[in-house]
Design brief:
By secondary structure, the protein is an alpha/beta fold. The protein has seven helices and four strands; from the N terminus they run αβαβαααβαβα. It has a single domain, classed as Rossmann fold (3-Layer(aba) Sandwich). The two termini are 20 Å apart.
Length: 174
């Protein structure tokens, strides 16, 4: 996208990468890989209840074993399918919170759901980014589960989506 920005008619300095759940993990991995390869990075990352820690040792991963839509039992199965019992050479691409350094990562909006097995790892990733000097807005949503946007007509969903949009606008106007 960065390389073809002129052809795409976009500002190469205003590219954000984002995703929810495993998509959030992929977004963080793309940013880490871009830094490792000294290629252009995004100006911002929007991570919604991201998967960031393959170790599965947080309190929320132990606590939310049977929540609807997504829970720690499903997370365990996902890691087995994803890693196939192998730790990749660059494990931080699969488990970004384990990166040796997160310095120079793009600013981030990270959102976690209250009753989500991934809650603590999202918070831990936000804190790790902050410790490395990265500007982070952490939104700890209340009364929510993983995938709560399925309730599209909910006023809460509308408010949270508006907050995401505002974070993107702010990032693009800096």
């Amino acid at each position: 996208v960065h390389h073809n920005s002129k052809e795409l008619g976009i500002d190469k300095n205003k590219i954000a990468i984002g995703g929810d759940s495993a998509g959030g993990a992929l977004a963080a991995a793309v940013n880490l890989m871009a830094l490792d390869r000294n290629t252009s990075t995004a100006c911002f990352q929007l991570l919604i209840y991201p998967v960031t820690d393959a170790r599965q040792q947080t309190e929320s991963i132990r606590k939310y074993i049977d929540t609807p839509l997504w829970n720690s039992r499903q997370t365990e199965k996902m890691w087995k399918l994803y890693l196939k019992d192998e730790i990749p050479d660059k494990k931080e691409y699969a488990s970004p919170v384990e990166a040796e350094s997160l310095e120079n990562m793009p600013a981030a909006y990270i959102e976690v759901a209250e009753f989500d097995c991934l809650r603590d790892e999202g918070i831990n990733f936000a804190e790790a980014l902050q410790k490395n000097g990265v500007q982070v807005e952490l939104n700890k949503t209340t009364g929510t589960i993983h995938g709560f946007e399925i309730a599209e007509s909910s006023e809460l969903v509308h408010q949270i989506v508006a907050k995401r949009i505002e974070a993107l606008k702010k990032a693009f106007n800096n």
